[in-house]
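forwarding from the other thread:

> can someone predict this with protoporphyrin IX containing FE?

sure thing
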Amino acid sequence: MSDHIPDELDPSGRDLRAYTDELRPDHRVVRNARGEWVLLRHADVVEAASDAERFSNAVSQHLQVPNGLDGDAHRAARATLDRYFTDEALAPFEPVFRGIARDLFASLPRGGTVEAVHDVGAMFAVRAQSAWLGWPADHEPHLLAWMADNHAATRSGDRSRTAVVASDFDAIIRSITDPRRTDLDAAPDDLTTQLMRDTVEGRPFTDEEIVSILRNWTGGDLGSIALCVGVLFAFLADNPDVQRRLRAGVGNAELDAAIDEVLRIDDPFLSNRRKTTCPVHVAGVDIPEGAHVKLHWTSANRDAAVFSDPDAFDPAANAEHNLVYGIGPHVCPGRPLATLELRVAVQEALAATEWIDWAPGEQAEREVAPVGGYARVPVVLT
Ligand code: HEM
């Protein structure tokens, strides 16, 4: 089992949820075409994610705050940045997100096809994130175009193309931060300015660090929220019982748990990388120092050793082992914000409609490696 590692695995063009479902029963770990060691099972992913000493986050040559940091530097950055995601810090944004969602659903057609990943997910994510950060609405088209380019570059697997897309995004961020930098005292009183005035270990963040933080707060997240919305709409259309139950009115805790469980079954945030700091023995194999290891969240979230029927919707039973937001020191700091945004989007979608169903005669399209979830979720809002 673990000592047989298939060669020449190439996930290109495959739906990674289906592909890892095929691999996981026979393999704890596989090597992909890049030579990365991909951990497929829940226990192994948890072990590596929880052990930041042996599995380092320093996987990129680019500065990534806090993602690419280890040890004390990582702890210090998280101590500062996690304060932006407390319930208290997020509470003022709830009515703002709700207004954005209401306007969006009011503008969408009834009876015609709505494509949930773009028309709902991407539009809502860009507007909500811009409102949260205090970014002007005229950046919306740039951010939407960037999201599409980013997905295309990720899909191409061409690192030089992803580097161009990353630098395009930095330019968008710089166009927002540079004018504030010239007179920070007079800058608009919003979250971006607050971050620029903030300190880590008693010193202000450098401009490079600010850009990196904002990139991680928006770049990675806009696409994830859009993909999550696509998965949620597809699930509601496929599961009338769950849709009916949520329409009957459930409290926030029950709705949040339902959303987390849908995302566990079909986790569009596929994986993260680590680099071994020493020779390690994990998933039954010896991996050398300096090797790249992938923690496959989507696969681990469907491991039958933990979730006996991975497709069964059972929020109460499965919450404890759900890995949608990761685990260990790098666990997602943005979870409370993502949870709030997704809750508001689903609540307002249900309030603005009598039913959400698949658009007749149209096909949903899955995303393929290295993107997760759906590319297209054509639905009809009634
Ligand atoms: C849609 C929902 C989201 C999902 C499924 C998600 C998932 C994850 C996961 C699995 C990790 C762990 C990464 C690792 O261990 O290497 C992570 C980390 C992270 N997430 Fe999220 N996330 C989401 C939304 C957000 C939002 C809204 C933000 C911020 C605005 C955010 C910011 C971050 C950052 C900065 C990290 C790195 C933390 C660190 O390295 O210490 N995420 N996220």
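The radius of gyration is 21 Å. thats all i got for now
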